[in-house]
Automatic annotation (TrEMBL), chain A:
Database matches in InterPro entries: DUF1800
Positions of the UniProt region annotated as Disordered: 1-25
UniProt-listed Pfam families: DUF1800
Protein name: DUF1800 domain-containing protein
Automatic annotation (TrEMBL), chain B:
Record organism: Chitinophaga silvisoli
Protein name, entry field: DUF1501 domain-containing protein
Domain Secretion system C-terminal sorting stretches: 449-518
Pfam annotation, one family: DUF1501
Alphabetized InterPro entries for the sequence: DUF1501 (IPR010869), Secre_tail (IPR026444)
Amino acid sequence: MDRRQFLSLSAKRQPAVKATTTGSRTDSGISAYTGTFDTAQAVHLLKRTMFGATPEDIAWVKGLGLDQAVEALLTTVTPVTTQPVNIYGEDEHGILPGESWVNSPPPSSDDEDGKRWNSYKAWWIGVMINQGRSIQEKMTLFWHNHFVTEMDMTHDSRYIYKYNTTLRANAVGNFKTLTKAITLDPAMLRYLNGYLNSKAGADENYARELHELFTVGKGPDSHYTEEDVRATARVLTGFRINANTITTYFESTEHDIENKEFSDFYSNKKITGKTGQDGATELDDLLTIIFAQPECAKFIVRKLYRWFVYYLIDDAVEANVITPLADIFRNNNYELLPVLRALFKSEHFFDPLNMSALIKSPIDHNVGLVREFGVTFPTAYMDAYDAWDRIRSHAASMLQDIGEPPQVAGWQPYYQEPQYHEMWINTDTLPKRNQFTDAIVSEGGYGGVAIDVMAFAQRLSNPSDPVQLITDSVAVLYRIDVSDTFKAWLKNTILLSGQNPDSDYYWTDAWNAWAAYPTDTALRTVVESRLRTLYKYMMNLSEYQLS
Amino acid sequence: MKRRDFLKYTAPATILPTFINGFAVKAFGSSSLLSALENAAADNDHVLVMIQLVGGNDGLNMVVPIDLYDKYQAIRPNIAIPQGKLLPLVNNVKTGLHPAMSGVQQLYEEGKVCIIQSVGYPSPNYSHFRATDIWVSGSDANEIVETGWGGRFLDTQYPGYPDGYPNDDNPDPLAIQIGSIVSPAFQGANANTGIAISSATDFYNLLDDVVDPVPNTHAGVELAYVRLIAKQTNKFSDSIKKAAQNVTSQSEYPDTQLGRQLKIVARLVAGGLKTRMYMVSMGFFDTHASQTQGGDNTTGYHAELLKELSEGIKAFMDDLTKLKASRRVVGMTFSEFGRRIKSNSSMGTDHGAAAPMIVFGDYVQQGILGTSPDIPDSGSVADNTPMQYDFRSVYASLLEQWFCVDNTTLQSILFKDYQRLPIVSGIACGTITGIDDVNNGSKGLITNYPNPFVDTTTLKYKTRGGHTMIQIFDTMGRLVGVPVNNMMAGGEYTAVFDSKKLAAGIYYARLQNGVYQEVRSMLKVKV
């Protein structure tokens, strides 16, 4: 082909990347974002890395600026000082009500264990609600969706609690380290039959998922073979659980000491079979082989992208975001921080065309709501657990039950093409979201807790100014832009009850009248009923479902 | 603000959902215990349409006292409507309507309008917010009630709502708000019984399956998705759509906010929707300044509002008549308060108290209940129209005479036994009784002597027997005493009003006996 031909052809070849959505797509990549960093960007960063963004969180992030805020969110470790406690009454091992059961002797039956499920789940909701300014809890939930276990298949809540602490401890650490820890985790060994895996007849359950779901995935460029699965199962023979100490040990007599060979997808590597306790180190050899495969980094980065940015990965995103992030991941020996740092400081993350498009998961919806509105919970543990459990069970009714993902692949909205996140919203679950928000913003509240709209408004910059009140409320509660006309409409219709739009002083007077006599019920009701209507309305709009 | 700015402040259709699930509150509380009361509502297809005049309507310029015209003219000279321009009412020489209200005048002539003078409540609140809450909840001035009077009525007719609704017997919304925020008037014990049709645009979009535009971003794609599901989850969209599609042509309506809202109501009513209560609203009645235009007090922005109101009502009734649905409808206007008797210097009026209500419909009894409001000779800006009728008497009368609610239920809805007024013909509920001549019967019932007085004055009053009450109000409408409140035998009585602790000034003694009432003006002077 001569040069002339080349030039005439190139025009046709140009559109190499085709948009796969009816919406806009963007070519922005992971170069550092240098644009405006104001309220919208601060809220975006917070809502994606935490559950909801409170007015104080927003001020904090704006004060720090992008780089420092990302650093703080990624590196802050908030120790969890509580443990799930007995809220179920009689305990076969004499654990008293209000006492932790996480170190108790093993449960004698599934029924005995089942008593603890709600306690564990409620406790976890409490941990999420009381999260520090850190990505820790969002990542812990991410890993629960990635390295899935299900309580009703594991049947030992003590294992599940330990698994939870393992996820949290490694939440932003090294992915390879976490993979090893989870491979040896008692809950996982129980869940995917690893504790039964023996040289006499290797159980491939965990081995398959290790490739298919936990590391390299099954994307178009992932070509691990059935032989790889079988070899992996043989590597993992011999691990057993000590139910009393809730630890894993290696039973070398159950270990397959033959050599294990891998396919060309894994560069035809071979693991030399080892005897005695050395057999346990074959796991390290295995992970070295798997993590040498570039698909591993790409698979995890895609999953992080779908969790933190948006589900749609078109060619442009693959080329401009996934590939460079995967390079960072591999070049840093699978440390998560460099990847997350690059993502949350990138042009792509703050590209207006990409923002605001995440449909809140039920947990994000419920936990984010109570955090943003500063809902206070009872101090008496039974009441607190009851409220946490109601919030948890309502999220479960909206398809996300923590502790019980529907299957080992996790929640469908994170992998099921083509709908992905949209699967959270259907004609059954959307009204349930509305019921929850309607109830918790009403006087009666939900599960014993309620939004204090007065307290919330007081945390905004100037609640006596109805224009500012709306602006601030929109900034906290919505991520998608709403027009000034709409904000004016909210103010006029709700805060001014349809009075003339230029009579803002009616609201100001009403607010100030109450502020001067905060114990006056009548004065409070005038303001409070309008705020309830405002927030109820805002949460009922479709805009509220987007983060 | 100028009236033409109005459109700028209406809801943008792009952002509003077609419906708000106002019914979702506590939807899963189990409250079906009340289901013992069976479909009492099914045997009555009457509809009440409430027109809320937001801001506090200047009743004194809407319903003008011809019999007190000189006093009226003297106390608000800069905004008074010239006597010759007032629209006369057939068989009534005491009262004229604002010249912009020819539509209502015509309906009155056809015998379809009842005007109730000086409707208010004891110790009125002058805050828009609080006063609105009082009107929609039906509470006393010093009482906070979380439910609405309409919601409480609908709760008695549709027990357990929203559990199990809609169902085969009740496929339609119980109440509809034209507007995005369902009025607290429809708040029931378990849930708000109303649903919102947020705007005319959205209503017609629903019929045409139009989806609001979204931004061309990923977020836009997801927003459109959530909205689509939201639309599908509306339990009532099908029945509303079906009813609307039963009506293929409607009469002309004025192209105004109210006209557009009432047009939707007429279409749904005539289309067979079984919804019992509708609420529409229009704003801008807060006429502190420039309510009339200098040089011609028959024009200006209050005139425009009244024109919109009157033309809207007239078009609505004409349309319903053509659609053969007018017999199912009674409408009423209400506002959170009237305005001060005396005008201010910026050609406006400030927040006031009692004001007239207009009730209209084929079954409504023509007439004006009550007398022209008392107007002081040398009034101060603080003077207010004393109440002649409690607004809950109007609610009670409509519930009894239009929704055929029995007395026990009525008292559970309104908490007290309010005076009933002859507003709707007894034919409507099949309980025709002798109609008393309320106005003539309300004359010469109460006097006082001496008058003026210093400390005490004697009230001399007549009762036909039964419940008899005398309330004393000051010019702010505050209830300062109830010297009589008893079951009594018919006859003439006296009672003493002791005013030692009260300031000098005008006081009103309001006698109420059955459907009759009379307000007596009294003057307390310093020694």
